[in-house]
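can u do me a favor
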């Protein structure tokens, strides 16, 4: 009890997150640092929650815009003409993503802090690329689009669970060449599918019974090129950014262990 009498302020503030003073009423350096760190953590949590909410709102508004414009056939192009409107719809969100990552430190922190296992797990939805092949069977889409696009998506979707399992078992797997190649192949598949669709649409003649990619400009298929494709590309890019950071961290640790 003698200590409490000599230092009355310590009992009043200890453990409350407020500055602690010594017997002369001065703040100790240790307690000041503790309070500053605590406030920084609170600010970081608030920033993270605010940014997550902002991203959710942007995604919702983006989706709503695609649906509203799609309902008005805003993405339909003439036969034999390239699907410029869909190209703009797919490219604009990607440009916004890269500009935000370049200019906003807060957005960079958000991208580099996203759970990479969740990012990889979302790619599993691409197993639904089987739907392209089904639409080919029913004569809705041409085979030269449906088969490569469908099989490419299915390959990424079916392998995604194994990638997630590897990340869970060994977090450093994120910096491996296999993980990087998997993400690059995922991006390549999406870019190739969109490019192939644009080429097919440009070569369409409008002949009776001709299967074209015109249905991809109508709802609900429109959501794939105008929303899901750029979203999946963003996820792959996010994974690659984190993969680079993990690889650099592993190299530093190896260098320190060898020193």
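np, heres the sequence
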């Amino acid at each position: 009890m003698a200590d409490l009498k000599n230092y009355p302020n310590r009992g009043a503030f200890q453990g409350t997150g407020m500055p602690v003073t010594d017997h002369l009423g001065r703040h100790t350096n240790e307690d000041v640092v503790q309070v500053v760190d605590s406030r920084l953590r609170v600010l970081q949590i608030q920033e993270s929650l605010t940014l997550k909410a902002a991203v959710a709102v942007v995604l919702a508004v983006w989706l709503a815009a695609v649906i509203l414009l799609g309902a008005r056939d805003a993405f339909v192009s003439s036969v034999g003409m390239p699907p410029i409107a869909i190209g703009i719809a797919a490219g604009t969100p990607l440009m916004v993503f890269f500009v935000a990552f370049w200019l906003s430190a807060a957005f960079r922190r958000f991208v580099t802090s996203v759970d990479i296992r969740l990012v990889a797990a979302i790619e599993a939805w691409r197993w639904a690329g089987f739907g392209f092949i089904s639409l080919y069977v029913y004569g809705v889409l041409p085979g030269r689009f449906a088969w490569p696009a469908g099989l490419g998506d299915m390959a990424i979707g079916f392998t995604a669970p194994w990638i997630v399992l590897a990340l869970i078992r060994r977090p450093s797997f994120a910096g491996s060449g296999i993980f990087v190649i998997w993400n690059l192949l995922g991006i390549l598949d999406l870019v190739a599918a969109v490019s192939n669709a644009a080429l097919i649409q440009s070569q369409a003649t409008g002949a009776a019974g001709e299967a074209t990619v015109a249905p991809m400009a109508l709802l609900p298929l429109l959501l794939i090129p105008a929303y899901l494709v750029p979203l999946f590309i963003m996820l792959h890019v996010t994974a690659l950014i984190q993969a680079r950071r993990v690889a650099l961290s592993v190299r530093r640790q190896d260098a320190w262990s060898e020193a």
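Residues 124 and 157 are 4 Å apart (CA to CA). hope that helps!!
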